[in-house]
């Protein structure tokens, strides 16, 4: 009788262990979700690094425009088509 109880107890404990492992590996909040979140974290860190590089380029351009007024004027003329007061703009069409 005691061996039967012992066997049932072992079977019950193994079943309980299996259920706990199942929840740990496959249910939400488990290890599978952890691996997925780690992949998302790596992707987000890569994207953040790229955005930081773009930010640094923009900061450099802003500093250059603030320091050199000729740069600001050249940019306004080339990109925005602006002219100084009193100037005439001639466009030659071929």
Question: Can you characterise this structure?
Answer:
The protein has 94 residues and is mainly α. The chain has one domain (2-78). 79% of the residues lie in helices and 0% in strands. The protein contains three helices and no strands. Helix 2 (31-67) crosses helix 3 (69-80). The protein is rod-shaped and about 110 Å long. The mean pLDDT is 86.
Short description:
The chain has 94 residues and is mainly α. 79% of the residues lie in helices and 0% in strands. The mean pLDDT is 86.
Specify the helix fraction band: over 70%
By helix and strand content, what is the structural category? Answer: mainly alpha
The span between the termini is 106 Å
**Helix count?**
3
Are there runs of 5+ residues with pLDDT below 50, and where?
Answer: none
Largest β-sheet summary? none
**Tally of structural domains:** 1
Shape: rod-shaped
What's the order of the H and E elements? HHH
The proportion of residues in beta strands is under 5%
Overall strand count: 0
The residue-averaged pLDDT reads 86
Instruction: Give me the oligomer status.
Output: single chain
**Radius of gyration in whole Å, from Cα?**
34 Å
How are the secondary structure elements laid out?
Layout: H1 2-26, H2 31-67, H3 69-80
Give the tags.
94 residues, mainly alpha, 79% helix, single chain
């Amino acid at each position: 009788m005691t061996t039967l109880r012992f066997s049932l107890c072992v079977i019950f404990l193994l079943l309980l262990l299996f259920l706990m492992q199942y929840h740990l590996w496959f249910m939400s909040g488990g290890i599978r979700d952890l691996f997925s979140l780690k992949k998302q974290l790596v992707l987000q860190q890569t994207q953040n690094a790229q955005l930081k590089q773009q930010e640094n380029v923009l900061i450099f351009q802003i500093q250059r425009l603030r320091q050199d007024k000729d740069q600001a004027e050249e940019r306004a003329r080339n990109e925005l088509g602006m002219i100084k007061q009193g100037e005439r703009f001639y466009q030659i069409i071929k």
